[in-house]
Each structure stands twice: as structure tokens, then as C-alpha cells.
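ESCALATION

Customer reports they have been waiting on this structure for their group meeting. Please prioritize. Original submission:
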Amino acid sequence: MINKTKDVPFTFVSKKIIKAMNEFLNPSEKLELIRQKIQLEQESMARLKEEIRKVIVGQERMVNRLLIALLADGHVLLEGVPGLAKTLAIKTLSEAINVSFSRIQFTPDLLPADLTGTLIYSQKEEDFQVKKGPIFANFILADEINRAPAKVQSALLEAMQEKQVTLGDETYELPKPFLVLATQNPIEQEGTYPLPEAQVDRFMLKVILDYPTKEEERKIIRSVIRKEGLEKVKPVINAKDIERFRELVREVYLDEKIEQYIVDLVVATRQPEAFQLDHLQTLISFGCSPRAGINLALAAKANAFLQGRGFVIPEDVRTLAEDVMQHRIGLTYEAEAENKTAKDIVLEIVNKVQVP
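Update from on-call: job pushed to the front of the queue and completed.
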């Protein structure tokens, strides 16, 4: 049998030709085609990771989740105590990609117009002119997002979901790719505002960070106090590369059994009794929204892409279930009284629901 995917280099094959080829391939050949296309992009991803590691020591899980969100076109909420390189990691990622970047420091006196922009009357033109805000950039770092009141946080809702901003009577498209990377400090309660559920649900991933290991801490101290300081990060990919990666992520194969597994995990947060988890009924006030299933499937595909695979395996789903689902579950007073966290509940569900 002739190998239909071997003779022509993929870098020179147009989308139309690939689409025509796909019509004549059987399922196993399609998987092999996707795998080979993904393998060709692994060098670019390796260069991106290498640039990030020049500055970020350890925190492999955080870097992995940032890359998954980038590949799956989602937003990330990083939560952790000060000094865990949350802001530095996001800034480093933006520097390693040749795209525009805006850092917005959220404070209690911030106004919605400080994010989105506003209409300013020009006496010379005798008309209102649009002054776009810092949100009109590819990467947005929303630093300490829980320090701004609800009216400011709500200004992000349209941008995060529809990738557009409305100023006056006009709607303006945001640049592509558009990614919101937010940080919040879980310790301080004074001067902070809980994020609205509608906004929290728009974050694909919520990553709770932990302290570095002893060895990582020693490397951090060495890298910071040396004479030349932190290494300079240079851009190694651009916006077109990201769009190409995202198209490949969409092509990653997701089997129906794994699709059903994702649905079962999400439904178990709403109907735990259906999965012999009756005791969770008194701990969960509301379960995950449909966005949880969508984002879990996309994140699993992105993880498979990072691993160089053309198909999703159950471990991709299990690995990311915590970060995708924990911020979409509401806890009751009983859960707080028992010191149960959303993470505990998600892990219990993951361990209970049957793996395909």
C-alpha cells in the first residue's frame, strides 16, 4: 500500500491539498497525518519552553498550563502567595512571543474606561474620537485582578468571551490572539473583591500555585543575585505561529468514549448521587457549567499536542480536570465546616468516575 502522507513535506502542502488528501485516508492514516504535522511543530514549542526556562526556575506545572491556555485559546487565572513568579511567568511568555502586551495593575480606584478606553470630544474635529484602552493588546496581564470592584471586572466579560469591546455605538474587534492572564493573592482579604461567578467561569484554567522545592529555591537565588541578573528573553514565535498551532490542536482526535468520560465528570458535579457520591450532595451548592466540558476537551487536546500526540488519552483529561473544574463548583457551608475545598471534591469525582 502506498503511504499517502510520506512523499510530500507538510510545510509545503496547502490546506486545500491536505483537505483533499484527508478524504481518501482511513482513520489510522488520518491519525498518522495529524501526528506528523504535530511533530513538525515540536521544535518551535521546544524553543518557546527554552526561552521561558531562561527566567522561570521550576514551576513546570504553571508554565505547562500557560502553554495549554495559549494553544486552546483560553484564559488563565493564577492564584498563589506573593513571590511565586506569577507575574514574571506571564511577562516572560509574552516576551518569548512577538505580540503586543499590556500590564494592568488592578486597584480599588480603577474605572472601566481605564481598561477598555473611552470616547473623547475633539474640539478641532467637533466630534467624538475613540481612545482605545490597554485591553487592545494580544496578551493582557490583569495583575491582582481581585483588587478592583465588580464594575471594573465586568468590563472584561465582553472582551474575554466575544473578543470585542463596545465603545459608544461602535464595537471593536480585539487583536488575535487575545489572552487574559490574571493573578490574584488568596491571603489578603482587606481591599479585595471576590470575582463574579460569570467572570470566573470565563477562565479556562484556574491554577493554584505552591512553593518551590529546596533545590528550585537555591537555583532561584543563584539566578537572581548573579552579577548579570536574569537572562534576556527573545521572541521565538509570532501570532501566525500561534494560529497554526491552534488549528492543529483542533485536529487532535478525541474519541467518543473519552468525550463521554468528560461529560460524566461534569455531570457528576451536578448529580453526584448518579455516581455513588451521595455524600457530595450536601457539599456542592452548584455544579460545573457546560463551559467546563468544552474547556476540558480543548485543554486535553492541547496537552496531547504538547506531548506530540495526535489523539487524546484519558490521562490528559485526568491531569487537567482539577484546573478546569475547581473554580466552577460552588461550595456549601457544610463543605466549609468540613474544610473541604473544590479541589478535594474534583479529585474525589475523578477517582470515582469510571475511566474508559
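Sent to customer with the following note: The longest strand covers residues 117-122.
Escalation resolved.
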